[in-house]
Amino acid sequence: QVQLQESGPGLVKPSETLSLTCTVSGVSMSGHYWSWIRQPPGKGLEWIGHIYYSGDTKYNPSLKSRVTISIDTSKSQFSLKLNSVTAADTAVYYCAGDTRNTWYYFWGQGTLVTVSS
Amino acid sequence: EIVLTQSPGTLSLSPGERATLSCRANQSVSSNYLAWYQQKPGQAPRLLIYGASSRAGGIPARFSGSGSVTDFSLTITRLEPEDFAVYFCQQYGSSLTFGQGTKVDI
What φ, ψ does residue B82 adopt, rounded to 5°? Predict the structure, then answer.
């Protein structure tokens, strides 16, 4: 059974860096694309970016200047860093994955990150 | 960036009825790169349809997808109580974007 689990602080101060980790179990990270997607409360979904198991990344152009996604296959984890956060970055953050970079079959349960002083 | 517009915003139906949801793109989308998701309150999205018309593993046959180029649709032939949820379409081209969602409620 494939499981993805997000972890990280639930509260981040404005102008600081949001850091989340997704731990993957039940499937090898090899051959998969791993992604971060977010959803502001009561709103729609926004793709943040993805990383291939090899380390190749692609980011949403609207967030590219503030985002870094990295991977540690030895720990079956991939991570998100989003810097210079504002209240607009408050959202449920999901990690997701698939063998293709075109849609996502595997999802974590999501974690709410609130940006507030 | 490809923008996906879903309609209607809310679809009010009863169990047993047929639901047809629309997803329209402002540019051509490769049919291979159009997907539909179902999301229930407090849950992550669940992949229903990929490649515009292929059902993901474990998805009941009452869910079907169709369409091409800029017009796509998701049909639920007979609504079950568990189908009342929000549905998102999603495309992948130079970037990945989602529609704003259609809520199917009773």
Answer: -75, -5
